[in-house]
Amino acid sequence: MIYPNSGYSRFAKAAAHFCGRPRVFSMAAAVIAVWLITGPIFHYSDTWQLVINTGTTIITFLMVFLIQNTQNRDTEAIQVKLDELIRATQGAHNALLDLEELEEDNLDAFKARYQALAAAARVELDKGLVDTGTPEA
């Protein structure tokens, strides 16, 4: 059963989508331009510098959380889709499901096996043979 997104998830997705638009980038660039133009008016004072530093720090701090939330959801969705492709593919190794949850050393062992398969396939190609098929991992 599919459940609706939480309020925070909907907000984070909408905010990340909105902030990624060219118009928002242009608005941010305009704010910086206005700040630069006002430098001489405020004699490049500490307060003038503090305004832009505080504003950009707060926006950056909040955006990190919004972007991370969106990125986490996207990554999880991709992993589930890849798991489904492995599960549904005849001859695929189901041990590859949910690899992102393994510890680093276990993941490195799987990676090493696939690197060895790739190296063997390249040797076959160099000999003029084909590199297709489903060798055991």
TrEMBL record:
Naturally occurring in which organism (per UniProt): Hydrogenophaga crassostreae
Highest taxon of the lineage: Bacteria
Keywords: Membrane, Transmembrane, Transmembrane helix
Pfam families, per the entry: Iron_permease
Entry's transmembrane regions: 24-42, 48-67
Protein name (database record): Low affinity iron permease family protein
One Gene Ontology biological process: transmembrane transport
